Each structure stands twice: as C-alpha cells, then as structure tokens.
Amino acid sequence: MSETSLDLDSLRLLTLVAELGSLGQAAERMRISQPAASKRLGMLERRLGLQLAERDTRGSALTTEGKAVCHWSEQVLAEAANLLAGAAALRAERGRDLRVATSMTLAESFLPGWVAELQRQSPGVQLSLKVTNSEQVAALASRHEISIGFVEGPAVPHGLSSRTVATDRLVVVVTRAHPWARRRQPVQLAELAATPLIVREPGSGTRETLERVFTRAGLQPVDPLMVLDVNAAVRSAAAASIGPAVLSAATVEDDLALGHLVEIRLAGADLHRKLRAIWPKTRPLPPAAETLLQIARSPR
C-alpha cells in the first residue's frame, strides 16, 4: 500500500502518543480501543517502512524517526484543519448560517440584545444557539462545531482567538434573614472560603473565576453547600435561605431590586472579570459572526 493512502486519524494517533506517552491514553482520547489503536499504528509503520514507536510496560515513546514523522504529521493536520475550517466558513457565508454557543450568564443577560441588533442589521442570518457552560463552549469552538462562542472564564483556552466583549463582576448574595445581611463590616475573603456556598458546576466560568480568586489568595475553599448547573436554580436556592451564593451581578439585578436578595460587601478580592468571544485561531470568522462580534463589542 502506498504512502499516498495515509489517513489523518493515523497521523493524529501518532501525535497523541507523542503528547501522552501512552498508546492506551491516545486510544482513549480518540475513543477507540487499544487493540484498534495498536493495529492502526502498526499499519502506519508498515506503510512508511519505519518503526515509529517503542512500546514497553511503562508506555510508548517515539523513535527518532517517529519524532520526525510526528513533526510532519502536525503540519499536515494543521493544514487539514485549515482546509475544513475554510470550507465551513464558505458554507456559513453562502448559507447565512451562524452557529453560536454561549455560557449561561451571557445567554441570560447579554446575548438577547446582541441577537436583536444582529437581526436588525442582517435580517437574513439564520442563527442556531446552544447554551452551556464556558468549558463546553470552548470545546465546541476547538472542534469547529460553532462559528463563534461567548465565555466568562478567567483565561483564554489554548488554540482559540479571543476578543473582550464586556466586563462583569461576581457578587455574594443572601436573603435579608441571613446573618451577613445585618453586618456592618464586609465579609473577608477567608471567611467566604470557609463558608459552604451555593455554586455553579465545574466548567462554569463563574465557578472557575471564584476558584481562581481563592487560589491566588492562597485559600482552600470548603466543599460547596450545593452545586447547580443553572443560574436561575442558584438564585432560587439563595432566595429560599438555603445559603449564600456567588453569581454574576447581571443575573441577580432584578432579585436585588425587588429585595429578594441582598448583596454582601466582600473585602480582600476583586471579583471583576472579562467576558470574551472565542473562535479557533485556524478559522476565519464568517461575515455574520464578525458582525455579531462588532455588535457585542460596541459600547452600550
């Protein structure tokens, strides 16, 4: 069989073996069995006429030849990604199709106004929207499954381009019946870390931002009182006097105005954060996504 029959999955398997140092872990990452991965790597070696990896009980390591082939494979995979991304962008432009994913906070408090303005400026755009947490939005963008994503995490995921579209801040909220609501002095960050809180699920930008604040202060928070995957559920639990919650100020604006919740002053931490648009570095934004990005970045 000639070298021209190489398949991209075999090249990707080789790069994963180099990255993870284990054929089994590489197989798991590709969601195939280890015997299937071993067979695929063996076929690649036979096609090239080279031994690419050495296997033992401790794992798998690339040979000198394998490292060279791995380097070329990365270039081939990157160009293949560019080809697929370009084709997807052309399809999106041709079909006026805009696939968007956004974190919960942005979906509730920011995106509706952006989409309304997009429909005014580009009435022919066909928009599909997925609402999930920031970690999943980044995963969708990395797999080129969306045109653009919006996240609230404190860092830009690897391999993605980003632009800041807005700023936000987290607030600590309780009911008026909670002891913190009657305090004259602010709650210290160390006290917040020592208090069981109602929080969002792991992967949420809100949860990640709070955990990073604790980490930077050298604090280890206690286990959460309750973990919920929807902002509305967190608000409801806090309003039911179950315990303190930490949420975006934008999501509790009405609750604070109506007196259902009270914002607690916090000392020793800055809970401001950036909200970002993200998309793959290897993929140009289609026109509709570019328009949405400009709308999101416009002063309001």
From TrEMBL:
Natural source organism: Kribbella jiaozuonensis
Record-linked Gene3D superfamilies: 3.40.190.290, Winged helix-like DNA-binding domain superfamily/Winged helix DNA-binding domain
GO molecular-function term, one example from the UniProt record: DNA-binding transcription factor activity
Lineage: superkingdom: Bacteria
Tagged with keyword DNA-binding: yes
Signal peptide: none
Keyword Transcription regulation assigned: yes
Keywords: DNA-binding, Transcription, Transcription regulation
Pfam families noted in UniProt: HTH_1, LysR_substrate
Domain HTH lysR-type intervals: 6-63
Family under the similarity heading: Belongs to the LysR transcriptional regulatory family.
Protein name: LysR family transcriptional regulator
